[in-house]
Amino acid sequence: MATAEAAAEIVREIAAVGAADLAAAAEPLRADCLRLARKVSLLPHLLAEVAEAGEAAGEPEAAAWVCELLRALQAARRFVALGRAPALATGSVDQDVIDKNIAVQFKYVTWQLQAALTNLPHSCFQISDEVQEEVDLVRGQLKREMEKKGALDVNIFSKIHDIIARHADNVGSHSQESHGQPETLQIENLSTDHMVLQNVALLVSEISGISKSDIKQITSELIEALENSRITDSAKPINVDSQTSDEAKGSSDEVKKPDSITMPEDFRCPISLELMRDPVIVSTGQTYERAFIQRWIDCGNRTCPKTQQKLQNLTLTPNYVLRSLILQWCEEKGIEPPTRSKYEGSSVEVGEDRLAIEALVCNLSCSSLDDRKSAAAEIRSLAKKSTDNRMLLAESGAIPALVKLLSSKDPKTQEHAVTSLLNLSIYDQNKELIVVGGAIVPIIQVLRMGSMEARENAAAAIFSLSLIDDNKIMIGSTPGAIEALVELLQSGSSRGRKDAATALFNLCIYQANKVRAVRAGILSPLVQMLQDSSNNGATDEALTILSVLVSHHECKTAIAKAHTIPFLIDLLRSSQSRNKENAAAILLALCKKDAQNLACIGRLGAQIPLTELSKTGSDRAKRKATSLLEHLSKLQVL
Questions:
Q1: What are the residues whose beta carbons fall under 8 Å from the beta carbon of 75, sequence distance 6 or more?
Q2: What is the Cα–Cα distance from 480 to 444, expressed in whole angstroms?
Q3: What is the pLDDT of residues 94-120, one digit of tens each?
């Protein structure tokens, strides 16, 4: 579906927007753009499944919904463009008026996107449970964003949206960007309420890409439609503080809730925007509600939702200090403290039917090979779908039964078993159950002797389990574990090599495993990966592993003896910026307190690319290059 592809492209464009792109934007526009970009960044999986539906979703209802979503995303892109545009002088225009106008546009954009997601026709698209959870999460976030911007009758937005939809042929053909204060349109004999509506119609039309020549007609239709439905008197879109004293008095008598008082922003989960119950810290230092960041990770995301930085690991560390502060704040404000629940953040329904899951687990141990294989395949699918299923499967005893099937003589049953354990391990509490259940040794056997797909998933399972520090030690000390990963890195499929590289990197964070990896022969495939100029991903993975290994003295000596220095210098000249940065860091580590290595990089002409990198690289690259140049300069003096 071409329209779905266009929507996916807009999502990628908006999701790529970061703080640096919005440096010229003033608050609150900058913050609004960043929050909108974070929410839109959760939609790629939905659009991928919509695109996969293709011809099967050819019903008019499906096509109409995709067009509706596309219009919402186009409006979101225009809003983000406001934040990316150079700031214009506002002259005598009241900044408060500008901020209120931005608030109206932001609220319409969030309302339109929330409405589109609410109208998702499930009968037309085979949306997975996992993606549906993401959609529900985004809808909830958008709704809360609207509420934060103050009171505005959504009937107004609905009427404008319907009118604009009838003008859809003009959308985009005369698109104009809004900068600063909108142009004023003159419509005769307007009351104060009507002038307010005119302003809203103008703001919404501009963010929807409607040409100014059509805005007057849209405003007139809006006023007529609202008068016909007798809701004009309730429309106060710009004045968000219009609550009467009686209303204020009534609300003060209600039981206090977190939403009714100002909550410290640090107490809100950046994903759910709600008071955190079980705050945890990710590798970037950001804190999230455990259930929501776990769901983010379960959906395959490997970046920090707030900063968009790559997560170096998937460990979730409890933030006890923040939880204590939240409890203290709740007590001071007379708010019921949040309570933790292992099902918090999940959908209301508790996964698949428990009895059906227990029956499947029983079939894992039955006498029929076909029944065991079928049960393992179904559990593999269920464990991939949701956190609730992973919990229920573990509670039903699936893990010990699956561990036994790792030794099955049937390759397909073995593959289903190891992949099921991989999917179950995504839920942190299951990691410990899998290790305690004796899975490490049989997983390594699958890694050595299984089919290629089974070996790939065994490597991925080792990576997942090694996210817990104690498991790094246990896996690394298990005979044959690191050797099997190195073998897969050397001769596996493309995906297998990637899974092996990821697992080895994580294991080598532990010092003893660095030496084990070098003695297992990891440097040979790493050097080959450095030479593979056609595969930037392989180069990046090799550099990442080398940057961990080089911190150990024995490994540092082995890396130099493996003749890596010429390849690292070549990367300084021709590689991508990230690879240049990592290559410089590894070279610096190799040359510290090692005059022989330093002389080698001097002979190979590293000064020129290092000088260039010291001027044009990232901050880290500049520091590493400058330090290397200083060492070379001292060597020449001597």
A1: 108, 109, 112, 113, 207, 208, 209
A2: 7
A3: 566 777 778 888 888 888 888 888 888
